Amino acid sequence: MAASPALARKGTWRGSCADLVELMRAHQWMKNGFVFVGLIFGHAWTDPGMILAAVLAAAGFSLAASAIYIINDFADLPRERAHPVMRQRPLASGRVSAHAARVLCALLLGGAVVLAWLASPGVLVIVAAYVAMNVAYSHALKHIVVLDVFVIAAGFILRILAGTLGIGIAPSQWLLVCSLLLTLFLGFAKRRAELIKSARSGVTAHRKTLALYSAELLDKYIGICAGGAIVAYSLYAMSPETARLHGTQHLVYTVPFVVYGIFRYLYLLHAAQAGTDTSRDLARDRHLIICVLGWLAATLVLIA
C-alpha cells in the first residue's frame, strides 16, 4: 500500500530503487542524444577526446534533467495529488518521501556539475543555464502560453550547443534552425496530445496553459513547424556550403527519412493518441526507430 502524502512530508527516507528511477524519469535521457549531433556533423566521431567530452556532457545533462523533473514535481505537487492519474506518481503518492526526493535531487545536481566540468568549463556554463531556465520554467514560464513550448525547445538547443560549442566544435546555423523547428514541432504536438487526452478523459487539465490552447490553433503551429523543419533540412542538405563541408552532394537522399519520420509522428499523434511522451513514442514505434537508425546510417555513410 502506498504511503500517505502526510507521511511523505516527514523527514524520512522512503523510496525503492524502482520508485527513485521512475521519479528521475530515466527513460527521458534519450533526449540527450542531441548532444552527439555535433560529433556527426563536425566529423569528430573518430576523435576519442571529443567523444569522451560529448559522453560526459550528455551524462551531465541527463542528471541535470532528472533533478529538474524532481523540482517540477515539487512545484506541481498540490495539482498532482488532486489529479486522478498523476497522483500515482512516486512523490505525489508518497511512495518516495519528500526528504528522499530532496536528497536525490541534490545528488543529481552535484553529479551534473562534476560531469559537466569534466567535459569542459563551457559545458558547465551551458548546463547551469539549462538548470536556471528550467527552474524558471517550473515556477513561472510554464504558465505563459506559447513561451512554454519555446522554453522546451531551448532546452534541446542548449544540448546541441553543449555538444558543439561546449567541446570545441563550431555549430552550424542550419543545424540550430532545423533543431529549433523540429523541437517546436514536438513541443506543440505534446501540448495537443495533452489537450485531447484531457478532453477525452473529462479530467481538468493539470497545465494552466492548456486552457489557453485549442486543437485548431495547435494544429496550425504544428503544421508550420513541421513544414519549416522539412524545408530547412532540405535546403541544408542541398546547400553548396554543406557539400563543401562534408565533401558530398548526396545528403539530399537523407531527406526522405526526415519527411517520413515527421509524417509518422503526425500519424501517431492523430490515430494512436500518442504525443504526450516523445521518448516513449520513439522507443515503442518500430517505424520511428527504423527511420532514425536509417537516417543516422545514411548520414554517416555519406559524410564519412
Write the layout of secondary structure elements.
Elements: H1 5-8, H2 17-24, H3 37-41, H4 48-75, H5 77-82, H6 90-93, H7 98-119, H8 121-139, H9 147-162, H10 173-201, H11 215-238, H12 240-246, H13 255-271, H14 278-284, H15 286-303
Provide a compact summary of the structure.
With 304 residues, the protein is mostly helical.
Walk me through the structure.
The chain has 304 residues and is mainly alpha-helical. It has 2 domains: 10-171, Tetracycline Repressor, domain 2; 172-304. Helices cover 70% and strands 0% of the residues. It is built from 15 helices and no strands. It has helices at 5-8, 17-24, 37-41, 48-75, 77-82, 90-93, 98-119, 121-139, 147-162, 173-201, 215-238, 240-246, 255-271, 278-284, 286-303. Helix 4 runs antiparallel to helix 7 (98-119).
Low-confidence stretches: 1-11
CATH architecture type of the largest domain:
Orthogonal Bundle
CATH homologous superfamily assignment of the largest domain? UbiA prenyltransferase
Given helix and strand content, the structural type is mainly alpha
Beta-strand percentage range: under 5%
Question: What is the general shape?
Answer: globular
SSE order: HHHHHHHHHHHHHHH
Total number of domains: 2
The beta-strand count equals 0
For the termini, the CA-CA separation is 55 Å
Which CATH class of the largest domain applies here?
Answer: Mainly Alpha
**Largest sheet descriptor:** none
How many DSSP helices?
15
Radius of gyration (Å) = 20 Å
> Would you tell me which CATH topology of the largest domain applies?
Tetracycline Repressor, domain 2
> What is the residue-averaged pLDDT?
88
In helices, the fraction of residues equals over 70%
